[in-house]
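ok so for the tutorial part 2 we go from a plain amino acid sequence to predicted structure tokens. step 1 is just haveing the sequence, like this:
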Amino acid sequence: MSIPSFDSTAHSTYTQPPNPSWTYGQRIDTTPAGKAWLEGESAGWKVYNTAEIDKANLMKLLNSGVVPRPIAFVSTISEEGVTNYPPVISFACNHNALGRLKDTTTNLKNSQGFTVNIISEPFIENANATAIDAPPDFDEWTISGLTKEKCVQIKASRVKESAFSMECELYKSIDITHPVTGEHNSTLILAHVKYIHVRKDMLTDRGAIDLTKFKPVARLGDISYGRVGDAYRLARPSWAQEEAKIQETLTTLASL
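step 2 — the prediction. this is what the tokens look like for a chain of 256 residues:
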């Protein structure tokens, strides 16, 4: 398959939300884009039974459907002092088709601490190299081309190239077992974030991270990754400001 070369000149921009004139109670089919979206319903739905679907296909389905996801690029250290990168892990969706736990899970449960380092475009290939299925005693730092940086409190290193890193201590780990088979191949990790390291040039005057500079990478389905494209700002509605308008809308809808 022939695809274009990577465009290093592209950058994220902000736009209005897709339907800035939306009002309470407005249905999807009131806009051209909404009508086009609903036309897809005519093809129907395919329903997957997770107890019957092949595990590899289930993982493929989850990884391509739960997108985009922020990426946790986690640095840990074993009790024997062996440092480790895991395969690049997503925060939200974790189904292990191989039926085995990663080295990172074991390391996360020790008392050495761990770091979560957000990946940006300039070093995605470096991060991807650490996803190799190496044996447990192999140090992925040696092939990553990335730099270990000392943390304030924990023993594990953070990734110096990452513009946003979190020093964490384990708060609680919960082993997840399949409700039918009892198989254990996932672990929920709850972390206590002790310190956050942010590059100064990434910060806006308001103390937020500048998306156009940060260039975070998202994990998609299959072997695909994505960049953040156009973003839009959409304020959360306030009941104090919107109550009258909502009540008026409900009254109008009730009279139809």
